């Protein structure tokens, strides 16, 4: 997590787990659904990006 925070700071971004503007979910559909659930009170203010790393995915459609 330290590397991610450092990388964000290099671009002038702030890591804010409590009130994020963007959530990047790396995993499968379940991981993305968990992120939706975790930030369900912010669905209208938060962008979600799903990076698919499993075999089959419908919601997380970006492949690294």
UniProtKB/TrEMBL annotation:
GO terms for molecular function: ATP binding; NAD binding; NAD+ kinase activity. Keywords: Kinase, Transferase. One of its GO terms (biological process) is NADP+ biosynthetic process. It comes from the Bacteria. InterPro entries: ATP-NAD_kinase_N, NAD/diacylglycerol_kinase_sf, NADK. This is NAD(+)/NADH kinase.
């Amino acid at each position: 997590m330290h590397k991610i925070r450092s990388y964000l700071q290099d671009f002038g971004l702030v890591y804010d787990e409590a009130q994020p503007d963007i959530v990047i979910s790396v995993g499968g559909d379940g991981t993305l659904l968990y992120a939706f659930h975790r930030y369900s009170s912010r669905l209208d203010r938060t962008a979600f990006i799903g990076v698919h790393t499993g075999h089959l995915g419908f919601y997380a459609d970006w492949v690294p």
